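User: What would this chain look like folded?
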Amino acid sequence: MPALPIVIIAAVADNGVIGNDNRLVWRLRTDLRRFRALTLGRPVLMGRKTFLSIGRPLPGRESVVLTRDSGFSANGVHVANDLPAALVLGRELGAALGADAVMVAGGADLYAQTLPLAARLELTRVHASPPGDAVFPYWDPSDFNLCREDHHPASADDEHAFSFERWGRKSAGSGSTT
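Assistant: Here's the prediction, encoded as structure tokens.
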């Protein structure tokens, strides 16, 4: 059986910012609902700081926390101390769940490490340029195909306009998506 694909899910401002002081810098309820829908029933890989900013395991998902701190533990999550171990654990949990992917939910360092491995990107493009200390890593859009794009205006639930984008990695030599 082939390994479960790696899917990055991130909300990224027009200036590349994804957070500030280990927090989101916008309020987008529609994006939070999408995040839940895309990650529910799947293993979610995140860095320790991202996990601590959430403050608890994500309900309905298996959380894998990647940390260099060998003494770190938290109730209700799986801990890995390096990326290969985290990926093995995520894929094992995903297979046990009957999931179709391992979701990577940040932060910036983990996105940078997993971007070369990602079969798909589920991005929310936040149409704002807030200040922040965490940015999404550079990626080459020519390595991917834009499979879907949905635009949403600012509203009572969403303080900025935004777009949902699904990018599939081009297969070697075929130009198709994964």
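The domain at 6-169 is CATH 3.40.430.10 (Dihydrofolate Reductase, subunit A). If you want, I can go into more detail on any region.
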